[in-house]
Amino acid sequence: MLLRQNFLQIARKSMLIILCILCFTSISWAQLGWETKAPMPTARGWLTTSVVNNNIYAIGGALDIGSNLDAVEAFNPLTNTWITKTPMPTPRGCAAACAVDGIIYVFGGGWYTVYSTVQAYDPSNDTWTTKSPMPTARSGLSVCVVDGIIYAISGFTDLNTHTGTNTVEAYNPKTDTWSTKAPIPTPRAYFATSVVNGIIYAITGFDRMSAPSLSNVEAYDPVSDVWTIKNDMPDPRAGMTSHTFDGKIYCFGGVAYGGGPCYSTISKYDPALDSWEDLSNAMPYEVFSISSSLLNGKLYFIGGLNNDRTPLTTVYEYTPLPVPVELVSFIGNNVNGKVLLEWKTATELNNNGFEVQRKAAASEFAIIGFVKGQGTTTNQKEYSYTDKNLVDGKYFYRLKQIDFDGTFEYSSEIEIEVRIIDKFTLEQNYPNPFNPTTTIGYVLKDKSNAKLTLLNAIGEEIAVLVNKEQDKGYHKVEFDAANLPSGVYFYSLQVYPTSGGAGSFTATKKLLLLK
Description:
CATH architecture of the largest domain: 6 Propeller
Number of domains: 3
Largest sheet: 5 strands, antiparallel
CATH class of the largest domain: Mainly Beta
Number of strands: 41
Structural class: mainly beta
Strand content: over 45%
Distance between the termini: 48 Å
Shape: elongated
CATH topology of the largest domain: Neuraminidase
């Protein structure tokens, strides 16, 4: 619905949680939105995943510390099947990957040799190509995409000494070139990154492999090339995965220190408030060095290591519902006597569509149209509707968002003044009589020099309300007569062409101030 609600809070309140002994290789937590899927053919942790054309590609990874895999396997959630693909040319775990324009780019990684290698995989023809290497070789790094540019952040440059780097380098896939950016304040590896409103958030990780996990959270703005320190994560973690929903970042799993037990915890970070919350519900298993991908409104958690550091083939599908229909804007404009309504949604769940409703000042709301929704999506969507054949006047509009099950909710109302812009017009002030404020409206059919003056009862000018060049359209002035005595006054509009010369329009009307 339009009211923003936390999908995890609703799941906690509205579903029966059945307590049982967890066997994460067989149990389905459908009650909490978790469902087991077909296992990955190759057990592994330290892998990376990316989505292209409704398939999830699991790439590389390791069986344990010191090993490197070249396996590439594609998972189709619709058929719940796996297909083996061409191996990655350079076997490696702890790499990072992301997809841009249908191509998957894999960066760095490696046990114990640390690579600067960048290789690109094209799922359409199952082939690999080598790209320009990273200027700084590193493993355990993280990558994020903002406006088509890939940002490769931090990582270990030496896994024998666990030497971290605060390096941030930006890769342009179109030009196959690199540029150096502002360094991250805290060097780290095996950390999570998520993007909210174009800002990259780097969340915890290790600064040394055997040390306790970090709690640091730092935000990077690619536009200004500046890092900002944020509030620490209350429970330090590394080796987790994160995703963005409804403007919040959700972090899953991880470990507190290198040899420590795994978490099943889900934590929520709100960038707007810079605040953290540990949610009472959790993953159905404890895991770290896991990879996950978001596809069609669902999260898929793939592989990882358990508490015994056994590599997993486990795949879970998580439905983070309900995602609200979040209306982020609703505006209207008068365009030559027509009203253009435009609105945007950030997310949608089971959205059948929007009834467009209108009322005049003295009437009730009536349906004037319907715009089909996008069902369920976590991507921003834009909509519009044009209301035609209107007479001059004031109108109110609202949206009735309707789910597929018939439930609905209204948007806020917006008010639009409609004027036919085909002639110069001076309107009667409203209210009239008034005390002490009133509104004077007028229409300019062309861009003009407009002068609006206030006159006393004998025609003497006592105030200039407007005297400037104005664009074509409807204009209004709020006039405050608090310093004037009661009586009859006049207001006069004189309109001159922007090129000068004789006045092209003059009109005068009476107004009455009663105190």
